[in-house]
UniProtKB/TrEMBL annotation:
The lineage of its organism: Eukaryota, Metazoa, Ecdysozoa, Arthropoda, Hexapoda. One of its GO terms (cellular component) is peroxisomal membrane. InterPro entries: Peroxin-3 (IPR006966). Coiled coil: none annotated. The keyword tRNA processing does not apply. Keywords: Peroxisome biogenesis. Interacts with PEX19. Involved in peroxisome biosynthesis and integrity. Assembles membrane vesicles before the matrix proteins are translocated. As a docking factor for PEX19, is necessary for the import of peroxisomal membrane proteins in the peroxisomes. The keyword Membrane does not apply. Signal peptide: none annotated. One of its GO terms (biological process) is protein import into peroxisome membrane. GO terms for molecular function: protein-macromolecule adaptor activity. The gene is LOC117649162. This is Peroxisomal biogenesis factor 3. Pfam families: Peroxin-3 (PF04882).
Length: 374
């Protein structure tokens, strides 16, 4: 019996070997496929969790950025009001008995300087904080992976650099803008009748003049107004290695502020803000003493006018705001009042700038670039 079995095995040995190889190979292949599938599933789950974590962290960073911008904008606004003081001129104008013309001449320069400075400073603040907070947010994502990229002291010191814009940058910015506003306003008489279009062209002239000099253009040199120099940066609370790291981050921030993309966004924010100024001024150019047509005839005279209007024979009394004019002397107090700061008044244009989609995308790109693992 054993000899028969032995002969059977010998006769079919090749078949047994092939079958064993096939079965064993299939089993190994299945085990390998199962392991790879398990690894793939685990990697997908980890990537999903990581993406979700980064997304939630980015949304949190965006909320923090919006809140920080809105909380710091009143300080920027107040710094501009203190730097370009029109209230003292208004008080002097109300109490003076002579020399009022000279006071008006100074007031018109300061009023338009203040509103232009507010436009540029708000745009700078939005871009600066978008860069700073998204840069730190990107590093914090890497910190969550155990890299320990930024210390708490370094973060605080870096974020506090934005105070340079409030303390020193505003003074330099207001001085620069006033030098360009003064020759433009000197050529415009207080008696000149200004339409809404004339006012828009006036703001365009101010913007064009401020940005005409490539060496003083605040768009091209935002870093000078927003970030202090190394000599004026207090690094006493940092270790030597952290000091070098801080200066590297400051250099990265300066490069971002002076990049072509940031310059393009700055121009977009400035144009958006000046458009907001014109929209608010349009309300002041509404026709005066213009009554709405009555809802129906109430007397014979009104009935005749109503019939004529329905038949199209009556002339329309509507006057478009663009056709309304007012003397520059009347426009100055309106422009000056727009820049007043009060607790119950929302900061001019800031909410529109915070919601600017292009600036948000720019911040997201900064976050992604500095959040990548090296």
């Amino acid at each position: 019996m054993f000899s028969r079995f032995k002969d059977f095995v010998n006769r079919h040995r090749r078949k047994f070997i092939v079958t064993g190889v096939v079965v064993g190979g299939t089993w190994l292949a299945l085990r390998y496929a199962q392991r790879k599938l398990r690894e793939y599933t685990e990697n997908e789950a980890k990537e999903f969790i990581e993406r979700n974590r980064r997304q939630q962290h980015f949304k949190s960073t965006e909320r923090t950025c919006d809140q920080t911008i809105l909380s710091l904008s009143p300080a920027i606004h107040e710094a501009i009001i203190n730097c370009v003081n029109t209230e003292e001129l208004v008080t002097e104008l109300q109490t003076a008995t002579t020399g009022k013309y000279g006071i008006w001449e100074r007031l018109k320069v300061r009023a338009f300087t203040r509103i232009a400075a507010l436009v540029y400073a708000n745009s700078m603040l939005v871009l600066l904080l978008r860069i700073q907070l998204n840069l730190v947010g990107g590093f914090l994502v890497r910190d969550a992976n155990g890299e320990g990229v930024l210390s708490t002291e370094l973060q605080h010191l870096y974020l506090s650099l934005c105070h340079h814009l409030r303390d020193t940058g505003i003074i330099d910015l207001c001085s620069l803008i006033e030098r360009h506003v003064q020759p433009i306003m000197e050529n415009i008489s207080l008696k000149k009748q200004m339409s809404l279009r004339d006012t828009e062209e006036l703001f365009w002239s101010i913007q064009n003049s401020v940005e005409s000099n490539m060496y003083e253009n605040p768009i091209k040199s935002m870093a000078k107004f927003c970030i202090p120099s190394k000599e004026n940066t207090d690094t006493g609370c940092l270790q030597e290695q952290e000091v070098q790291q801080l200066f590297n981050i400051i250099s990265e921030t300066s490069d971002l502020l002076e990049s072509d993309e940031a310059a393009s966004l700055m121009r977009s924010c400035i144009s958006q803000s000046f458009a907001g100024v014109i929209d608010k001024l349009a309300d002041q150019f509404a026709p005066i003493n213009h009554s709405e047509p009555a809802p129906g005839p109430s007397s014979d005279k009104v009935a005749d006018a109503w019939t004529s209007a329905v038949n199209g024979s009556a002339k329309s009394s509507f006057v478009h705001p663009s056709n309304v004019t007012m003397p520059l002397a009347k426009l100055i107090p309106i422009v000056n009042k727009m820049t007043e700061l009060s607790p119950s008044k929302k900061d001019l244009w800031m909410y529109q700038l915070v919601r600017n989609d292009l600036v948000k995308v720019f911040g997201a790109n900064v976050y992604e670039a500095f959040g990548q693992l090296e």
